[in-house]
Amino acid sequence: MAPQAITLGPVPAATPGPSPSGRLRGAAEAVLIPLGALVVAMLLFGLFILLIGKSPLEVYGFIYKGGFSTSFAWQNTLARAAPLILTALCVALPAQAGLIIIGGEGALVLGGLASAVAGYQIGLSGASPAVVQVFMALAAMVAGGAWIAIGGALRHFRGVNETISSLLLTYIALALFNHFVEGPLRDPASLNKPSTMPIGEANMVGMLPDLDVHWGLVYGVVFCVIAFVLVRYSTPGFALRIVGGNVRAARLVGLPVGVLLIGSCVLGGAAAGLAGMAEVAAVHGAANASLIAGYGYAGILVAFIARHNPLAIIPVAILLGGINASGGMLQRRLDLPDATVLVLQGIAFMTILASETLYGRFRLFQSGPQK
Amino acid sequence: MNNDSFRSSRRQMLKAMSAAGLATGLGLPAMRAGAADKLVVGVIYVGPKDDYGYSQAQAQAAAAIKKMPGVTVIEQEKVAETTDVQKVMASMIEEDGASLVFPTSFGYFDPHMIKMAEKYPKVRFAHCGGLWTEGKHPKNTASYFGYIDECQFLNGVVAAHATKSKKLGFIAAKPIPQVMRNINAFTLGAQSVKPEITTQVIFTGDWLLPVKEAEAANSLIDQGVDVMTMHVDSPKVIVETCERRGIYVCGYHADQSALAPKGYLTGAEWNWLTPYTEHVKAAMAGKPLDNFLRGGLKEGFVKPSAYGKAVSEAARKQADGVKASMVKGEYVIFKGPLKDNTGKVVIPAGSAHKQTDLALEQMNYLVAGVIGKA
Amino acid sequence: MDSGLGWWGVPIAVLGGALRVSTPFLFVSLGECLTEKSGRINLGLEGVLVMGAMSGYAISYTTGNPWLGVLAAGFAGLLLGVLHALVCNLPRVNDIAVGIGLMLFGTGVAFFLGKPYVQPKAPTLPAIPLGGWSDSPQIQAALQINVLFVLGLALALLLHWAFRNTRWGMVVRMAGDSADAAKAMGYSVSGIRLAATAGGSFLAGIGGAFLSLYYPGSWNEGLSSGQGLMAVALVIFARWRPLACFWAALLFGGAAALGPALQSVGITSGYYLFNATPYVLTLAIMVVTCSPKRTLSGAPGELSVTR
After folding, report:
1. ipTM, 2 decimals?
2. Which residue of A196, A335, C270, C296 shows the fewest CB atoms closer than 10 Å?
3. Who's near A111: CB < 8 A, 6+ residues apart?
4. What CATH code is carried by the domain that includes residue A151?
């Protein structure tokens, strides 16, 4: 069916109220409701922990300790948050146009593969590391963007549901990735861990100064800020949100709906591809199966909790990174299984989604009379 | 929820709260202080530690060294081969005071363990399966591995006696040197009994894919394979499928005889306790780290499973003979003339690769008689 | 059996694979079909499937009766379905997103609670040998049918009939095609969807029990490789027709067997690509049959996925 009445997307980010005080109230609502939901989630999780006979407060304590207490814990958290920021954008940007894309994992691995190939080939020519890195980033963004664009294009031209197609495309991307890494592009010297040719130590992207976190974090933050400005303050961004709100209206106004839909997918895919490049250039030095680490799926979670607001993605990714970081401490100190963190994330996700229903319900957050 | 249960849950909460205060306020410094006179050993697994296979074999050794006096073991399972494992190693060192770390998956070696070893030069890192090289890798890192191909060779000898169709099956995850060495050893073992035997290989593509592994087993059995073995992370499903279809099976990683009482012939098992004990003792005594630790049947790094009841007297005799020769360190599995399955000579006549030969750890061919592509 | 089947092994393996691998697809897709007919999509059936697999195995192990395990798996699924429906019944909550949350939650809880059941061996479900007429052990093995498969086929027929011919079926379809019409008739749309989601998840839970209790027949954390997610695509592929779900499930099962079967006759390169066949196939069929101009025939009008 023609994408005439796309309503499956989230409500586009709350439109600013008419007055400064209204804007403030809107912002307060956008912060307090998810925070409240998180508190509820923590309580429910505590109940679960209590049911299995452990102390919830002890668990909370270790989550804080392992994720946020010391500078070491913070670095641990930030390192884990870095890839999630970029993969979350792969969900949040198409969501502005009302599309639910869940194929970030595929864009990440193909972006990583493209950047590894580009890095090796351009590295051979003797270009300087900066040039190599720029081309790696470009290759990754093109590959990731093109891959997600398929989902957007199928939606626009053939009416194929983009959620399902992006999921199928992920499986196909993983198959292609494995095929190339273990087949035609395999470095014969990579023994028990099949990998592509290494990009070389000199071309690697280093760590942030004084931090044990790689530059991928900065890529993510910069991308989020750009995306936020683009969506909020640019004309194409405005047009995109009209498409997300009501495709029919967008057509009536004469907006290039297809370009906008597919463009948002390209941008989102580029972000996920860049996450793959960061993994290759800052961590592994080549493309191999380690890139398939579920970052793309975790990004879905981050984007939905952030309600697809590009700026909100940053704190949410950090929160999730912290929970993941503390999972280790829960295993080592309390002998809890690794799945504990999954349970907490599942509960948090469900409560935050349920809290969607609260927006606009509280008089406190409304500036004018309610309709 | 009625009032009573609410009250009791609140009471439990209060109790919990004080417990938490104890743990966070007092417990940790006590642990830190304890680290000075106790050796804290960190073990990191790539899968769940009860997978009936790869990670479980490591976890069994970890459980055994836990009983050694003066040793505290901390474990973390399902750690991805990404920055995750770097942070887990760092956490074990910084937060728990670990001074010996066992990262047990191949993919942890480069770059993750190398990076952490450079950052924490006083901590010892003992990695499973990596190819530690003098001058290239830090001195505080080490690799240990076992010559499990010896047990796969014995599997092959026993399988050759059991097979009627002379077609053996091998289900493997990926075509990498460790796996190909096992496929080749299994095939050569079988061919040492009946030279005309072939081994059909199926690569599933990943280390844990139960449905695909079961399908692979069924396909091979349909093609007439009547003895199977494997190299995947968790052999449980394959062993059970073989038992159900009534063919023989040789196990891998751990003892799976309980899963196939009728068809289990024997199996190739790890005995990681040997290298673990060596590294732990060296660390406690302050002795230098043994950077390259390898061993087979002779050194007690690997062991065959006990023979199943389907193994004939002749098979037992021949396999025991080969095993005795291996334990003496006399038996050479990979010796010339040896051709791969494309007809190329991979080991010329007259030359032989002993188990310690590093060329074997870079094996990239499948020997003649193996149906499959490397 | 001293000789193999050679090339004939491929179609036989695909047939056998279709019969063995299809059942989870069948149950999950029938469940999803029921849920979607009521106008809601539950993307969380992957989590339900895993939860069903775990609880089925655990109960079969503790009680010694695999059928109790199947029942427990269904009820575990039902609970998760109720959770999904209750959250989705709140106004302005997106059902696709809740599905993703449920996937995470169900998988997490199943892994968490399933730890003690990885090692033990639980009694599994029996098979019905339908290949007795053949001398070939391969055919005999391929035609080992599980009761759940037969049950699934019966269920597909039942749903096919019930959607058209029962009052209950018409109410579900009405809630799915036009919530307003259902309301006007005095039915509670959220109530209907709650029942349909709970019922659908019950079936998906049973699909999970098939994985852990029959094929491949044990519980571990890698048991499902996305069958629950694929089944959602399968329903669209089958145009919301229960009987088509049955054929589509068979097709997916057969496709899953194709990769290993080809390797077993010596086609050994490109196995990753062969293994991706089902996904390519689904995508291709969706591309060919969808159209931007009209609604998919058979699509429930209220369904967010088709709008």
Report:
1. 0.88
2. A335
3. A139, A140, A141, A143, A144, A147, A269, A272, A273, A274, A275, A276, A277
4. 1.10.3470
